[in-house]
Design brief:
The complex is a heterodimer of chains A (87) and B (200). Chain A is an all-alpha fold and 87 residues long. Chain A has helices spanning 3-14, 20-32, 34-53, 56-60, 67-78. The model of chain A has no long low-confidence stretch (mean pLDDT 86). Chain B is an all-alpha fold and 200 residues long. Chain B has two domains: 7-91, RNA polymerase sigma factor, region 2, helix turn helix motif (Rna Polymerase Sigma Factor, Chain: A, Orthogonal Bundle); 101-191, Winged helix-like DNA-binding domain superfamily/Winged helix DNA-binding domain (Arc Repressor Mutant, subunit A). Chain B has nine helices and no strands. Chain B has helices at 7-17, 21-43, 46-62, 73-91, 124-128, 131-143, 146-157, 162-169, 173-191. The mean pLDDT of chain B is 88. The chains are: A mainly alpha (87), B mainly alpha (200). Chains A and B meet through helix 1, helix 3, helix 4 and helix 5 of A and helix 2, helix 3, helix 5, helix 6 and helix 7 of B.
Chain lengths: 87, 200
């Protein structure tokens, strides 16, 4: 297995979906190839860091929806024709 | 992955279907923060996100009858929010996308890496704890071309499965996997300076 082959297998490896034979070959390649080990480590950290940076609290900086949006939604609902409403 | 609807959600859905005004307000207040976050993650623009939140709830009010209780109510609402955000993106003027080929690893003819790159010494948690760093990471995600960014956000951040993302984006599951892999590689390259890799 080359570094190029190993790159193609990264996602299936991380998802635990790599068939047994390829998993063995991938593991052997990683054991022998420092650059690929480092690449895999950075790839994993990319996923983790982006998840953390895009978390709910990080993005909105608040846990609750601002009141003006609530009022706008409720007002828009009240303008829906009665035939489309439940009340 | 999805469990069935909880008793609290069942009571809320019943109240909504009965047309109780207080139930509508409770729905918006209880789920609004999470829905706003979803829309902001996909749209990177507060005003557009607010529009998408409004469209999400109005769409949910209109289609309450289609909620069958097989998934959690929050999951159902989340899908509506993603679709509302994607619709918002589609209606915006599109710019030609730039190639991300320069951000992908290159290899020699024998399959070995051309550039071994650097080692990331800190954990993702350590690096992304600071607010300024979180903001930088978000800017790098935003810098990805939309077709890659959307797949990355839907799979890695919203944690939707490949088939669901394929359906939402009208792509094949195989195309979603390829785009996700390329997006992650490109983002890894963009984040390398932030993670301050150690040399070999």
């Amino acid at each position: 297995m080359t570094c190029h082959d190993a790159l193609d297998f990264l996602d299936d490896y991380l998802d635990g979906k790599l068939p047994w034979g390829q998993r063995i070959a991938f593991g052997l390649h990683l054991g022998l190839c420092r650059p690929c080990r480092d690449y895999l480590d950075g790839y994993r950290k990319t996923i983790e860091a982006s998840r953390k940076a895009m978390s709910e609290q990080a993005v909105t900086n608040c846990e609750q929806i601002p009141d003006e949006i609530v009022q706008a939604i409720l007002a828009a609902r009240s303008q829906v024709p009665r035939s489309d409403r439940r009340d | 992955m999805e469990s069935s609807i909880s008793e609290t959600e069942t009571a809320l859905v019943s109240a909504l279907r009965a047309g109780e005004p207080a139930a509508y307000e409770r729905l918006v207040r209880d789920y609004g923060g999470r829905i706003l976050a979803v829309c902001e993650r996909l749209l990177f623009n507060r005003e557009d996100a607010r529009d998408a939140v409004q469209e999400t709830f109005l769409s949910a009010f209109r289609s309450l009858e289609s909620f069958d209780g097989r998934s959690q109510f929050a999951t159902w609402l989340h899908r509506i929010a993603v679709n509302a955000s994607l619709m918002k993106l589609r209606t915006k003027r599109r710019h030609p996308e730039h190639s991300i080929d320069d951000l992908l690893p290159t290899f020699q003819a024998d399959g070995h890496r051309r550039d071994p790159g650097s080692r990331w010494t800190n954990s993702a948690g350590e690096i992304s704890e600071q607010r300024e760093t979180q903001q930088l990471i978000r800017e790098k995600i935003e810098a990805l071309p939309e077709s890659y960014r959307n797949v990355l956000i839907l799979r890695d951040i919203e944690e939707l499965d490949t088939e669901t993302v394929a359906e939402m984006l009208e792509l094949s599951p195989g195309a979603v996997k390829v785009r996700l892999h390329r997006a992650r590689q490109a983002l890894r390259t963009l984040l390398e300076p932030i993670f301050g890799g150690a040399s070999k």
